[in-house]
Amino acid sequence: MTVRVIFVSPAIGPELRQARFADEASAYGGDAAGGLDVAHGEDALDEAGVRAARALRPDLPAASHRFVSPSARCRRTAEELGLADAVAEPALRGCATGRWRGRTLDEVAAEEPEAVMAWLADPAAAPHGGESVRQLCARVAGWLDGTAAGLTGRVLVVAEPDAVRAAAVHALGVPDLAFRRLDVPPLAVVELTGRAGRWNLRLG
Q: What is residue 30's DSSP assignment?
């Protein structure tokens, strides 16, 4: 049987506009490990993000399974897309960035330029004390090959951009160095089809 997994990235909001590392303490209700009892966060999206999500809502297909990254911006995006009943999935949370969380990339680069360069160049690097890109890719791959592969029909997922990129890397079977070469803009729609242990990236 074939399963179709349609990922939607979160709508634009303050963190994305400022290129700010997600603050897990606020995004996940104080539980950086991925707690599910989170506030939806009225300020997780800005007005433009809310309008864009509502505009996309009629274009999304019906799905028998719905999941959402447990961050405030993904939960709020899911609400505006009409997916308020989506199941929070910790495996699809964004990359944990340790001591960099809540700060902008520019701020960190000014104070730790060598660390940022290592983080951007090496998928195994985690100079912030959090999670490496390689670990993130393995986590998302595990969800795809485990939970998602066991489903049938259509699956809708509102997921962090990091998780969407990791899913594409896994589907294509490319080295995790390719993670940094993939851009996921707000409300990007990325579809994967899975069958017999293989994933394909659907374009168009």
A: T
